[in-house]
Amino acid sequence: MILIKLVLVGPTLPLVRGRLIRQIDNGIENKINPAVFKKPMFFAVTCSNVLQGLVFFLPNIYLPCK
User: Fold this and answer.
1) Residue 9 and residue 44: Cα distance in Å, rounded?
2) How far apart are CA 37 and CA 18, in angstroms?
3) What are phi and psi of 43, to 5 degrees?
4) For a FRET experiment, which of 19, 24, 42, 50 has its CA 20 to 30 Å from that of 2?
């Protein structure tokens, strides 16, 4: 199976380009703005993301294993 994938995909690998964007040196560094962490919307989005992650795994705890 691996050999079949290698034969099918292998010849196309030299044609694949990277997804990294070339950085232009204009003297301005991309820094994280620390004021974002003080906004209530940041906490709302972060809390909802954590809760969604917890809910995703909770059903596995309560389902019986057969």
Assistant:
1) 43
2) 32
3) -70, -35
4) 19
* CA dihedral of residues 51, 57, 62, 63 (deg, nearest 10): 140
* Pair 55, 49: CB distance under 8 Å: no
- How many residues in the chain? 66
Q: Report the C-alpha gap between 32 and 30 in whole angstroms.
A: 7
Q: What is the pLDDT of residues 32-60, one digit of tens each?
A: 788 889 999 999 999 999 998 887 776 66
Tokens of 16: 């694949």
In angstroms, rounded to a whole number, what is the distance separating the alpha carbons of residues 55 and 59?
A: 7
Q: Token match 């010849």: residue?
A: 11
Say which residues have a Cβ less than 8 Å from residue 36's Cβ, sequence separation at least 6: 42
